[in-house]
Specification:
Elements (H helix, E strand, L loop, with lengths): L12 H18 L14 E6 L4 H13 L3 E6 L11 H11 L3 E6 L4 H6 L5 E7 L5 H15 L6 E5 L6 H12 L3 E5 L15 E3 L2 H5 L4 E4 L15 H8 L3 H4 L7 E3 L12 H4 L6 H20 L7
Parallel strand pairs: 1-2, 1-3, 3-4, 5-6, 5-8, 6-7, 8-9
């Protein structure tokens, strides 16, 4: 493991597979336990440093740390000294003085976790920075895909939606390609970033054609809060061209699965019938997120597997 987990692009294949294998061992270790906890990080302190709202990710990291018996401090920018003008560097020094062993950072500015890692002695985990990356989301997606598909080598994965504003898309493309998958990005031209042709993925504007025979499709949330202009005419028009309904789901391979990082805009990027259907693993992604984040914290703070 590297000292920090800042980007999925920093992980080579052996390291990524080691993380996923460790998550599988942790899942086995706590399965069937009345108290689903391990004592491996007792006495360690994990700080959730969130400058941007994300209830799902924060709770997932908090639960992961507590299941490893670590002490958890939740720090929200709202109502803190940050709202009074304190800088990120001042906050980092405060955490350093408190003896934080790991800092899980979510920030609206790309590169903030990387900068934070230069100011603290503890380990830093990127929980999403701007439109850059969200590595633990990519890891939990890969973990979910691997469980259902048996492996990722040469599997066809289609990622659909707002790629321009999505850190999840970037991290997934990099990690899934590292693990041997063939990735296709599907989006309106207005929702693709400049330079996407240099990404290790195929780009398509035809969702129906891309879905035929695919092993999995990952729908991205249309991030309306990040949009400053009209990237598509109407929600109905977007749904007609790039939404996943039952007809399109049936274009997947027989055992193809549907993923979504959440939260979902039901009826826009995905219909309720598909989101709640038999091929959907969206709820399982949330469960797997806790397990994968346990593995990340465990390997960063423990560095060994003796307790498993």
């Amino acid at each position: 493991m590297p000292r920090h987990l800042l980007a999925a692009g920093d992980l080579d294949r052996p390291t990524a597979e080691h993380l996923l294998d460790t998550a599988a061992r942790i899942e086995q270790a706590i399965a069937g336990r009345e108290v689903r906890k391990l004592p491996t990080l007792r006495g360690r302190t994990v700080v959730n440093l969130f400058f941007e709202d994300s209830t799902r990710t924060r709770i997932s990291f908090e639960l992961a740390a507590k299941r490893l018996s670590a002490d958890v401090i939740n720090f929200s920018a709202k109502g803190s000294s940050v709202s009074k003008g304190e800088s990120l560097k001042d906050t980092a020094w405060t955490l350093q003085a408190m003896g934080a062993d790991a800092v899980v950072c979510r920030h609206s500015s790309s590169g903030a976790p990387q900068q934070l890692s230069a100011w603290v002695d503890g380990h830093v985990v990127n929980a999403g920075d701007g439109t850059h990356e969200h590595p633990t989301q990519a890891l939990l997606d890969a973990y979910t895909l691997r469980r259902h598909l048996g492996g990722l080598q040469d599997r066809r994965i289609v990622i659909v939606g707002d790629v321009l504003h999505s850190r999840v898309a970037r991290s997934n493309v990099l990690l899934l390609r590292t693990l041997g998958a063939d990735v296709t990005l599907v989006a309106p031209p207005t929702l693709l970033p400049v330079g996407v042709s240099d990404w290790p993925a195929t780009v398509s504007y035809d969702l129906d054609r891309a879905l035929v025979g695919a092993d999995a499709v990952m729908m991205l949330r249309v991030q309306q809060e990040r949009m400053q202009g009209a990237f598509f005419p109407t929600a109905r028009e977007y749904s007609r061209g790039y939404g996943l309904d039952g007809r399109r789901r049936d274009l997947l391979a027989p055992n193809g699965i549907v993923l979504h990082p959440g939260p979902m805009n039901r009826g826009m990027e995905i219909t309720p019938q598909v989101a709640d259907g038999a091929n959907s693993v969206i709820v399982e992604q949330v469960t797997n997120g806790v397990t994968v984040r346990m593995a990340v914290l465990y390997l960063l703070l423990s560095g060994s597997e003796g307790a498993l």
